[in-house]
Design goal:
Strand 9 and strand 10 form a beta hairpin. 35% of the residues are buried. By secondary structure, the chain is of the alpha+beta class. Helix 1 crosses helix 11 and helix 5 runs parallel beside helix 9. It folds into 2 domains: 242 residues, 2-Layer Sandwich (BirA Bifunctional Protein, domain 2); 99 residues, 3-Layer(aba) Sandwich (Rossmann fold), CATH 3.40.50.800. Strands 1-5-6-11-10-9-7-8 form an 8-stranded mixed sheet. It is built from 15 helices and 16 strands. The structure holds histidyl-adenosine monophosphate. The site of histidyl-adenosine monophosphate has 26 residues, from strand 6, strand 10, strand 11 and helix 11.
């Protein structure tokens, strides 16, 4: 195939054989979010570039080198959203729905775009389910976010494979004091730092803590500790969060080097990580951003949220073989009709059954065909039962009811009794 007709590198089709798992995952998460009282918001995929620069931070990897940015026909600089928090803050401000201290508990789902080097679990178009809460500043809501994800991992059967890492970045004042101390220390060891860290020391020193370079890591062993610079309020907030996680029995690891790659965080930051996916092990991440709304032109409004990567979680379900068996079957019943008259009667019968059993997955054969070919299609569809309408059945106003997966002989069911009979044999989702 010529190159221009291929999908863009790092941007994937999600094929019909994969979508049942995606829908299972999305359905499980959205039901959970409904149950905890979160409401869905939908934002555009494209925003003014300035939005992301101002919120995520000019000297982050995302803004410096990963955004899909272009001028539109009016000459405005636009960007495909690399994440959802910035657009969500823009939306609540634009519509005034966080004014006067109104609490908003919002979630969103959709594609995000980052020009990263594609590999397993890392793509250029990927999908997140994200969540943002506004106007609640206590650790109770931070805890709720984590408790909710913990429940999700339980429902999905992956709880044993994920670990929670926590840190507190403090307020912008305490972080400022810590940054100064860190810069002073690292500057004294400048020559021992890797090139990237030397650059970050000037632009975004906290990100040096995140380094993978062994020499720089060695320098960091004796570096000032963020925890020693935390202000009392942040410390109490963090203790409050940990007490709530302890109360519910959620294990966590304090990771003083967890700083996150986006600049808007304050106080709580957390990541759920796994060792089951190779290098791209963070499946869900977020934290508090109490200064962001004000920084974006709103009144001071506390905020906290997270986002999870759907591709990574689907990979987890596959790797840990936690895909419910019933997803494999997409059809309950397959109706075969032979001859024009039977086909017309079959169509009408199928609609009557669907009226009575709206959740039944009933597929009517299309494209006619011999007995053999229709039966083959019925079997291939994965259906539990085939319904058969031929000359004999037409004459008697019955339908042949044939189990396709073992148990039971074919029997004849009167048209009027068909829906009631199906209701007893098929468990409907
Ligand atoms: P993030 O850490 O940049 O945070 O992304 C959140 C999650 O999205 C990651 O943990 C990962 O599962 C997934 N993800 C990120 N990049 C990729 C990629 N290239 N390919 C596949 N999956 C990826 C945020 O986006 C923040 N907006 C989260 C947040 C919401 N903080 C507060 N509210």
């Amino acid at each position: 195939m010529s190159k221009s007709l291929q999908a863009i590198r790092g941007m994937n089709d999600i094929l019909p054989e994969q979508t049942p798992v995606w829908r299972y995952f999305e359905g499980t998460v959205s039901r959970l979010l409904d149950n905890y009282g979160y409401k869905q918001i939908r934002m555009p995929i494209v925003e003014f570039t300035e939005l992301f620069k101002r919120s995520i931070g000019e000297v982050t990897d995302i803004v410096e080198k990963e955004m899909y940015t272009f001028d539109d026909r009016n000459g405005d600089s636009l960007t495909l959203r690399p994440e959802g928090t910035a657009a969500c803050v823009r939306a609540v401000l634009e519509h005034g729905i966080t004014g006067g201290g109104q609490v908003q508990k919002l979630w969103y789902i959709g594609p995000m775009f980052r020009h990263e080097r594609p590999q397993k679990g890392r793509y250029r178009q990927f999908h997140q389910i994200g969540l943002e809460v506004f106007n609640l500043d206590g650790p109770d809501i931070d805890a709720e976010l984590i408790i909710m994800t913990w429940r999700l991992w339980g429902e999905l059967g992956i709880r044993d494979a994920v670990k929670l890492e926590l840190n507190s970045l403090g307020t912008s004042e305490s972080r400022g004091r810590y940054r100064e101390a860190l810069v002073e220390y690292l500057s004294a060891h400048h020559d021992k730092l890797d090139e990237d860290s030397q650059r970050r020391l000037k632009t975004n020193p906290l990100r040096v803590l995140d380094t993978k370079n062994a020499d720089t890591q060695a320098v960091l062993v004796d570096a000032p500790k963020m925890a020693d610079y935390l202000d009392d309020e942040s410390r109490a907030h963090f203790e409050g969060l940990k007490a709530r996680l302890d109360a519910v029995g959620i294990p966590y690891v304090f990771n003083p080097k967890l700083v996150r790659g986006l600049d808007y965080y304050s106080k709580t930051v957390f990541e759920w990580v796994t060792d089951k996916l190779g290098a791209q092990g963070t499946v869900c991440a977020g934290g508090r951003y109490d200064g962001l709304v004000e920084q974006m032109g709103g009144k001071p409004t506390p905020g906290v949220g997270f986002a999870m990567g759907i591709e990574r979680l689907v990979l987890m379900l596959e790797t840990l073989e936690q895909i419910p068996q019933e997803l494999a079957r997409q059809v309950d019943v397959y109706l075969c009709a032979f001859g024009e008259e039977a086909e017309l009667a079959g169509l009408a019968l199928a609609e009557r059954v669907r009226d009575q059993l709206p959740n039944l997955r009933l597929q009517v054969n299309a494209g006619a065909g011999s007995f053999k070919s229709q039966f083959k299609k019925a079997d291939k569809s994965g259906a539990l039962y085939a319904l058969i309408l031929g000359d004999d059945e037409m004459a008697q106003q019955v339908v042949g009811f044939k189990p396709l997966r073992g148990q039971g002989e074919q029997q004849s069911i009167a048209w009027d009794a068909l829906a009631a009979h199906l209701a007893t044999c098929v468990v409907q989702g």
